[in-house]
Design goal:
alpha+beta; 9 helices; about 425 residues
């Protein structure tokens, strides 16, 4: 509650008192009852209008053109993909305009903004490094690993370049670009039974991804090597380093900033993870350009390929409304060869979905040995799973995705959803 100023409390207490008096006066049988009712309704309307105007001023607005400007281009690219690919795939957007972009464009993505979102799935997406808060999680924070295991096969972007992570440029329409990811592993694939021991509750998403690789494939190779980015330069505030990745700051002056500078010692592919309470913005400057992020709950950010001597600057702009806050900042050096090794191991036994609707998935899988069919379907009570026509009990992998125990051999796996 500390983020609410004292004046807000006093205003609400005063309004509550006035409402109680007016409601009491309007409920009594006396000659001023009509006037009390009019005063009550008037106050109610004034408060609603005041809150509405304040909300618009605080949150900003977007014009109609902003929403519809790329609608035709997205529909065109969706149609081209559907005409040549009848498999079950996911398609996401690289640049986020809002939290519901995927729903707005009716894309088969992984992002979700809903009051009924499964808490286990939301938590797992957060642990994997995505932006996730209570009732929503989004594609912001993607890595090659999550693109592969969540079956993100196509990506829409405003940028035109040869590649975005493991996506390769394929097509364009009216300024919108389509990329294809040949590393996407499909809707399901066999993993070791050790996936049930996956240590996914760690607060370092790079370690969570390393743990996934080890549990799923048995590999000891690290996908990421975590590292600290040092002590920041503080301007208009004071800062203390609590751990190698955690910092606390006290806000002194208006417009305070904390700036980290990282210089690559060798050629490397780098990602960073941040979680910054009470910061207005993170600005990232790399040799390739700059970007900014306003999600204080944080996510993974792709820095990209750096050459020895390249410098990256991370500047957190502090929110003047608060006196203190915390920042978690972790660097991760990506081993692309370890990633390819993971994909090669997991694509040996994939679930070939040959029939699907909005409430059903069915296909075959050849299990080389006993294990778990890992699917990127969110774990929900409404799903019923059948293996070779017999109902089986599903597992909650990572607390949020459906896993299906399978014995060695070929199986027909069917999943049917009915809202409980």
């Amino acid at each position: 509650m500390e983020n609410i100023s004292d004046i807000v409390f006093w205003i609400n207490i005063a309004l509550t008192g006035i409402y109680i008096v007016l409601i009491g006066m309007a409920a009594l049988r006396w000659k001023g009852r009509r006037s009390a009712t009019i005063a009550l309704v008037s106050l109610f309307l004034v408060e609603i209008c005041g809150n509405s105007v304040y909300g618009l001023c605080a949150n900003g607005t977007v014009d109609r053109k902003g929403y519809y400007s790329d609608q035709d281009a997205v529909e065109e690219l969706k149609g081209r993909v559907a005409a040549q690919d009848d498999s079950f795939y996911r398609m996401e957007v690289e640049e986020r305009r809002g939290r519901d972009d995927v729903t707005w464009h009716n894309l088969p993505g992984m992002s979700l903004f809903s009051s009924t979102v499964n808490a286990g799935t939301d938590n797992l997406m957060r642990r994997l490094g995505f932006y996730a808060v209570t009732n929503k999680y989004s594609y912001e924070g993607a890595t090659p690993e999550t693109d592969a295991i969540l079956n993100i096969k196509y990506l829409l972007s405003n940028k035109k370049q040869e590649t975005i992570r493991t996506f390769e440029w394929e097509d364009s329409a009216d300024g919108k670009n389509l990329y294809k990811n040949d590393m996407a592993l499909g809707q399901g694939f066999m993993v070791s039974e050790d996936i049930l021991n996956w240590d996914y509750e760690q607060t370092n998403p790079f370690n969570v991804l390393n743990s996934f690789n080890q549990a799923a494939t048995g590999s000891s190779q690290l996908l990421y090597q975590s590292f600290g980015i040092g002590v920041p330069e503080a301007e208009g505030c004071s800062v203390e380093q609590d751990t190698w990745a955690d910092f606390s700051y006290s806000h002194g002056e208006e417009g305070g900033t904390l700036t980290w500078t990282y210089t690559a010692q060798s050629d490397e592919e780098v990602y960073i993870y941040f979680k910054a309470t009470r910061c207005e913005r993170l600005r990232v400057e790399t040799p390739e350009g700059s970007a900014s992020y306003t999600d204080e709950d944080g996510h993974i950010v792709e820095i990209g390929n750096l050459s020895a001597g390249d410098t990256v600057t991370l500047t957190f702009e502090l929110d003047d409304a608060y006196e203190s806050g915390t920042i978690k900042l972790i660097g991760g050096r990506h081993d692309i060869h370890a990633f390819y090794g993971m994909v090669d191991a997991l694509r040996q036994s994939t679930w070939r979905v040959d029939e699907y609707t909005s409430t059903m998935l069915s296909g075959t899988v050849q299990a080389a040995q006993d294990g778990i069919l890992f699917t990127s379907v969110p774990y929900e009570e409404g799903w019923t799973v059948y293996v070779d026509g017999k109902e089986v009990e599903a597992e909650a992998i990572g607390g949020g995705l459906i896993g299906i125990p399978l014995e060695q051999g070929e199986h027909i796996v069917k999943m049917v959803y009915k809202a409980p």
